[in-house]
Amino acid sequence: MTPEKILARLSEIACEVFDEDDLVFTMETTAQDVEDWDSLTHLSFVNEIENVYGIKMTMGEIQGAKNVGDFVETILKHIG
Amino acid sequence: MVGFNELRKAAKKLPIPSGAPYRVAILGDSATQYFATAIEGYAKLSKLPLQVLDTDYNAIDTELIDEHSATRLWKPDAILLWLSTPKLYQAYEETAADARAEFATQTMNRIETLWMLIEKCGVKTIIQPNFPESFDAMWGNYSSKVNASFVYQMRALQYLLSKAMSTRNNVYPIDLQSIAMRFGEKDFFDAALYYNAKMAIALNALPTVAKAVVDVIAALKGTVKKCIVLDLDNTLWGGVIGDDGLAGIELGEFGRGMAFSAFQRWLLQMKERGIILTVCSKNNENTAKEPFEKHEDMVLRLDDISLFVANWEDKASNIKMIRETLSIGMDSMVFLDDNPFERNLVRQMIPEICVPELPEDPALYVSFLVNENLFETATYAKENTNRTKQYQAEMERIRTMTTFTSIDEYLESLEMKGTAKPFEPIRFARIAELSQRSNQFNLRTIRYSEADIEAMANDSQYITLYFMLKDRFGDHGLVSVVILKKMSEASNTVFVDTWFMSCRVLKRGMEEFIMNSVVNAAKEKGYGKIIGEYIPTPKNEMVRAIYSKMGFQTINDNQYMLETKTFVPFHHFISEVES
Predict the structure, then answer these.
(1) Shortest Cα distance, chain A CAs vs residue B29, angstroms
(2) Which one, of B45, B44, B135, lies nearest residue B92 by Cα?
(3) Same CATH fold, B227-372 and B4-220?
(4) How many cross-chain Cβ pairs, A to B, lie less than 8 Å apart?
(5) Can you give the residue ranges of every domain in chain B?
(6) Average pLDDT of the segment spanning A11-30
(7) Rounded to two decimals, what is the model's pTM?
(8) Does B386 contact A at CB distance below 8 Å?
(9) What are phi and psi of B424, to 5 degrees?
C-alpha cells in the first residue's frame, strides 16, 4: 500500500465523515482546513479509518495526529 | 446493522418523522453527544418521531434540581438516565476499602434518589440502562466470591436494579449488559475513546445500543408484535413431513433435531409470555397435524397453536385470513419460514408484515431472532397467557355461528356475561397494556402508562370504566376501557377521553353494553351531556362512525354529543354480572 493510495482513500472517508463532496487531502491538510473537522468529528474520522483498515490506533496516535500526513504514517505503521 | 456514521448523517440531515414527537432527555455521567446522535439517527431511519435533548457532561444532579436547567425547561416525556460502568468503577475506587462491600446498595440508593427527583420534575417515564460488567481481576477468578470486589458488587447492583424496576411501573430498562455481552467487552468499550473523550461505548457498538433505545420507545408508543406465523417443514422440524413421514423428520436426538427442538422451546416461551402462535403450511391438514399429535419429541402441541392453517393456497392469502380471524394489525405479525421464495412472496403481497431473513442453518434460528429483538414490550400482565385458549374458543364460536340462521339467535346462544367496573389496582397493568396495544377500535389512540392509569383512577375529575366479557365458550377477559373526563370545573359535561375495545368482541353487542354503562355512570355523577371525539389514525377507520351509531349528534367533523336524559338504552344479549 503506497502513501498516495492511502491519501486518496482518506479523502474519500473524509468526504463521508465531514460531509463534503470534493475534499482532496494533501499530506499537509489539517483540521483547520476542513469546516466540519472538530474534536468530535475527529473521533468519528478515526473510527472510520480503524474500520476501513482493520486497525486500532493508540490514544497517543489519535491525540497526536496533527495533519493528514500523520494519519497516513500511522496507518502504514499498523498495516506494515 | 447500519454504521455509526450513517446514523450521524441521518441525525443531521433527515427531518423528524411526522407524528406527535416523543421527547427524551439524555442525562449521563459520561460524554453523551454521540450516544444521543446515534439514537436520533436510528429513530429517524425507523420513522419514529422522536426528539432528543442531549444535556451537559456529568451534570445529572443539576439538570434535575435546578428548575432552569435545560432538561426542566424542555419538559421531556421521558428521561434516559445513564450511569456508565467506567464512572461507577471510579466511584467504587473512591469508596473507602472497608465500605466497598456496600457499594451496590449505596449506588442503588443513589439511583432511587435520582428516580425520585425525576418524578418530582413531573417527568413520567424513566428509561434506565443497566450496567455492562467489567472485570478488573483484582483477586483473579476468586473476585467473584469476594463481596468487596467490583465484579461482585456490579452483579449485586444488576440484581438490585432489576428488583427495584420490577416494583415500578414508570421505569423501562435498556439491557446494556446483554448488548455488551454479545459484543464482548473489547468491542463494546473503547478505552482510547473513553480516555480521550469520556465516551463509554465504542462507536461501532452505538448503533446496536441506539436500536435498543428506539425499540423500547416504539413499544412504549404502542408498536408491538403480537403474533408469529410459522411454517412447518424445515422451520419447526428438519425434513418434509409429507415425504419423510413421522419417523423421518428431524426432531430431538435425530439428525439436526436438537436445533429444531430448541427453536420450538423458544417459541413455546414466546407463547407463554403472550405472543400468539399460528401455523401456515403448504400441506394436507392431517399430515401437517400428525407430528403435533403423535411425535414424542415435538415441544409445541396443537394446544399451543391458536390458528392452524394447512392447505395448498398461497401463503399470503392464508396470512390475510389469519389476520382477519385474530383481528390484529398486519404490522404486528411476524412470518417465519425457511424458504426464501415464500418469504419474498409474502413480503411482496403484504408489505406491512415483518418477514425476518431466517439464516440457512437452523442452529442459528434462535440467536438470529434474539439479535433482531422483534418482541419488545412495555408492559407485563399475566392475563396474556390465556390468549391461545381465547383464540381457540373464537374458532369454536365461528364454527357454531354457521349453525344458526339469525345473528340474534346466535348471540343469545352464546350466553354472554358482561362486567363494568371502575379501574382497580389489580387491573392497572392490563389496562395500560391495552391502551398501548389497541389500534383499530380506539377513538383517540392516547397511550397511557400504568402510572397514568393509577392517577386517573384516583382523580375525581375522571370516571373510569373497564369491561370484561365471557360466554359459554370461554373468557375474553378485559376487553374494553372507557375514560371520561369532566370538561371544566362548573360544567355538567363529560368528555370521552379514551374508548378502546378489543376487536375480538366486535359485533356481539358489546359496544351497546358499554354505551349503556357509560351513560349510566355519567348520569349517576350528575352529568347531562357526553362529548365524544374521533381522532383519525391510519388504523382506526373502523370506528369513524361509531358515535353516530351510538345515537350521538354530530357537532362538527369529528366531534359528537349525547344528552344523557333522552338516551334510550340499547338492546343487547349480554347480561350484566358483578364479576
Answers:
(1) 18
(2) B135
(3) yes
(4) 36
(5) 4-220, 227-372, 401-578
(6) 92
(7) 0.76
(8) no
(9) -125, 150
